C-alpha cells in the first residue's frame, strides 16, 4: 500500500515541480524578454529602421564581421537569449550561421562581461576558482576566454554558412530534378 501512495505522491510531485518551474518562467524571464523586446523595438523605431538596417548591412557585409563583430554587439547589448533577435537583419540563408556563432559566444563573454549571460557565470566562476586558488590574476584568463570565443564563433559561423549554402543548393537541385521528371 505504501508503494502505491509513494508512487502517487511522486507522480503528482512531478507535475507540481513542473508547475513551479513554469511559474518561475512566467514571473522571471518571460516578463524580462517582453520588456527587452519592447525596448529594442522602440530604440529601432526611434533611430529608424532604415538606419539600423544600414548599420546591420555594413556589419554583415563581410563574413569576418558577420561572425565576429555583429554577434559580439548582439550578445553584449541584448544579452542571452535576446541577442538572437539580431538575426532579423540578415538574409534567411545567413540566419542559421549567425545563430550558431552567437550561441557559441554567450559563454566565453561572461569572463569580461558577466551581464551578457549571468546564467553561465557559474561555469566561469568554477574555472576561475582554480586560478584564484593559485594566486593568479583572472584578467588574462578572461581575455583568453573572450579571444578564443571570438575565434570559435567565427569558425562556427563560417562552417554553418557553408553547410547551409550546400543544403540550399541541394534542395534547389532536387526541386529541379523533381520538376524535370
From TrEMBL:
Task: Please name the GO terms of the biological process aspect recorded for this protein, alphabetically.
Answer: phosphoenolpyruvate-dependent sugar phosphotransferase system
UniProt-listed InterPro entries: PTS_IID_sorb (IPR004699)
Identify the Pfam families for this entry.
EII-GUT
- What are the alphabetically sorted keywords of the record? Membrane, Transmembrane, Transmembrane helix
Asked if the keyword Nucleotide-binding belongs to this entry, the reply reads no
Q: Which GO terms describe its cellular component?
A: membrane
Q: Which PROSITE patterns match?
A: PTS_EIIC_TYPE_5
Report TM segments: 22-44, 64-87, 141-159
Spell out the PANTHER family in the cross-references.
PTS SYSTEM GLUCITOL/SORBITOL-SPECIFIC EIIC COMPONENT, PTS SYSTEM GLUCITOL_SORBITOL-SPECIFIC EIIC COMPONENT
Protein name (record): PTS system glucitol/sorbitol-specific EIIC component
